[in-house]
Queue: 4 jobs
Job 1
Amino acid sequence: MIKLDKKPNILVIGDLMIDHYLWGSCDRISPEAPVQIIDVKKETTVLGGAGNVINNLLSLGSDVGVISVVGDDEVAKELKSMLDKHGAKSFLIEQKGRKTSKKSRIMASHSQVVRYDHESKNSISFDSEKKIFEKFQELINRYDIILFSDYGKGVITKDLSKKIIDYAKKYDKKVIVDPKGEDYSKYSGAYFLTPNKKEAQIASKVEIENEEKLKEALIKLKTIASLDYSIITLSEQGIALLKDDEVILRPTVAREVFDVTGAGDTVLASLGFALSLGKDLVEAIEFANLAAGVVVGKLGSATVTLDEIEEYKTSLNQSSIEFHLKTFKEIEKISNRLKEQNKKIVFTNGCFDILHKGHVSYLNTAKSFGDVLILGLNSDDSVKRLKGENRPINNQDDRAYILLALECVDYVVIFDEDTPYELISLVKPDILVKGADYDGKEVVGSDIAKETKLVEFIDGRSTTKTIEKIQGK
């Protein structure tokens, strides 16, 4: 699984837009015409087009730059403000007389009633092309990888595409493209494209009916656009890759599909993200499939985080043990998100030096009180102060790994203090669990948790007795 040891720097070039929503309800028909009257209650705006790729990259943990062309209008100012607020570094070229894209949707009871667009769809001017390329030349060394998000609104012209791809190759920078239109020669020399099945059929003029036709389409697209690799996204069937004349298919496993809006943007973002961290192409595809599996389970154009992908992997029984060992900062963010999802958090802590049946029974009982069990684990130094110089028998990494192998333990956080009070303050659990030997004693953190529960240990089971038995005492 991907761990974010460094922040990748990714540059997005493409068509930016604002998705604007007017939310309301409808109780009557207009007397002026046979149309619904919508009583607007709320108005929202989100980044759309290439902006959804940017949102996904930011939520995954990237540093993101964006180059695009906008008009000299109020929508452009709004768009720039949104990019700044999200934390993207924007390099926007203003073109006089051009309309910045804004798509407005009137929604009633979560159903779209009508959409109206304010935008220019013609190709950007030669002067704007020149300014984009000059800016790209200036910025190229700052970024690990370049993503084209082409929505067919005129920013990525054929000449500009060729110039950027050729120049990127001189610096050994990969260009990945979410394509638009029928002529993929426009992206000649790209690392690969990410068309969906319908787009691939149109561009390759091959009807993808079976595996043989799928391979034919992949080969044709690779030839048309002189690609390093050829890829086709296949919705719930996953992603197909042509590598060394062999088709590799990695399926997507979605628990439940609510909305496929923006899934293509998530695939582009997650592929670029994984590759920029040094993953090979097959690993990147597997990561992108997981990301897509998360976003199709959400409503509307959605983003995905590394933690959501890991939780999703857990639900598919594919999760890596190490990823569930968290820092204080990480567990605070996870706890906040779990609360937003109305999950009941259970917290317990201890040394758990030599794991035995008593520990497992105790932890299983603790997990039964809620949805997620977070375990605070005493560090080696902390155990020495509590138990003496000869303890622990097993070091903190070994103890954490073994605990995380238990199905009932969701996250482990190692703490160095004598008590886990600081950690409990960050987690703010619903349920705090300790052993029944604390009956009548003060339980650290009970003033923070909503409820404290004491659990009986199994008689005759303890780490001390296990050690004595090993020593023949």
Note: The domain at 322-470 is CATH 3.40.50.620 (Rossmann fold).
Job 2
Amino acid sequence: MPYFLCRLNPPRPSFASDMTEAEAALMARHAGHLRDCAAKGTLLIAGPVADPAGPWGLGVFRADSEAQMRVLTGTDPVIRADAGFSYDIYPMLSAIVGRPNLQET
């Protein structure tokens, strides 16, 4: 099964430090969506990346195809809310998968 690295781009570089209460609630729904994906075995790992240019979200997923990956990211609440988020989707050429049951931190 193919693997994909997905980058969730926030609506602005300062998002992580100045999100509104409504955006925080949207992020909580986003986290729930990712936990559902993890429970189904589609998501391997996800979390915010401390990029000096501005934080963004990383997810490594497995899906049958890029089309299926686009459907999966399209159902994310942050995308459905049309709140300025976008995903970049990168098919991985190969993958070495470590522990099958990584623990959430």
Note: The domain at 3-91 is CATH 3.30.70.1060 (Alpha-Beta Plaits).
Job 3
Amino acid sequence: MAHIIVVGNEKGGAGKSTVSMHVATALSRMGHKVGVIDLDLRQKTLARYLENRLTFLSKKGLDLPTPDFRELPEVEKRELAPGENIYDRRLSIAVAGLEGVADFVLIDCPGSHTRLSQVAHSLADTLITPMNDSFIDFDLLARVDSETNEILGPSVYSEMVWSARQLRAQAGLKPSDWVVVRNRLGAQAMVNKKKIGDALDELARRIGFRLSPGFSERVTFRELFPRGLTLLDLKDIGVERMNISMVAARQELRDMMVALELPGVSVDF
């Protein structure tokens, strides 16, 4: 059985597709077979990222490790069992088609609450939730008192993750390993960063997730997208000397891959 990685939250702009692309490509470059499904049927950012990659590699005559992207198949309503949801069937077929050929299946969820996202979360062996390092995004995980920053209770998204974990338990599956990735950690505003860190540490103990460092805000990531490239591809396209920002970003990727603790993965870059 493939190990299923789900990248999800219910807010846009947290870097889900950047994290998804780098995790999937890093695994591919380390010799693992990786399948990818994009559940954001409107924006399709990850799908476009991979499309850009194939186009760039074709133009340059390059052959770099690339995840296997699969579209959700179309399903006729007459093919559904009584009471069966069409999105459940489409996702089930896509995942089943990859499980026999992939070591890992990565599913990128939209930044909104959808049926597809709900189902995907229940499939997650590893759940990655990127968040910007601010109390605006902290609200994704929990409700906070505006005066004291005291945690009042879990958010709607955290409750959805809890429900998905319950479904896995009922099916006899192991609990999802939930990893919250702190993106866009600022170099300044140390007091605010510490407050968020303390609040995350407390919430992690209460609702059961682990914390991982993520990516800082860097121009490099915006430059990579049009060509479908990741930080690990730069030397293959002739970048002999990386600038300081590229080196730092590559180290951030390595730290995140180590923190994910994916089964059978030895981070070697």
Note: The first strand starts at residue 3 and ends at 7.
Job 4
Amino acid sequence: MRYAFGELVSDIAKPFVVGILIAGVITFFFPEDLTVWANDHRFVSMLVMLAAGIPMYVCATASTPIAAALILKGLNPGAALVFLLAGPATNAATINLVRTIFNTRTLVIYLSMIAVTSLAMGIGVDAVYDLMGIRASAVVGQAAEIVPVWIQIPAAVVLAVLMVYTSWKQSTGCASTVCSSECSE
């Protein structure tokens, strides 16, 4: 329980809030006609998301709301998946670490495999959506209808309180699972 409602919440709070903020900016500022371009240039949109995701320092927690916002704006689900796979797997720090510890050849193989796998999975996801006749922008956000609003609101409040509480505990130096007596007061 301490891990689930303490350390885990503390670990995901900042990237989650950053991801939500970036998703809000994307939703507000990105053009509505992204659908036309993304559907006409599916593979190119995957390459763009690959190029954006590789150097970006984004974890899975932050990249999920970003990808959802892009799909809402009309990005094909395959391109969003490429971003979801390549972004957290690679970033400037990881690239530098792999090159330093191993060598440039290993780095090229590492990045190539992530790129090829991400693109293949993106193409596969787009094929499944086409085969099933599903428009991704029509189904994104529909899961909220499964859970009633009277559960959504209290759950959001509890999550916000937990994130603020764990952030406060971390800032006061009581973030570890075993706190001293002065921290538990």
Note: The chain has nine helices and no strands.
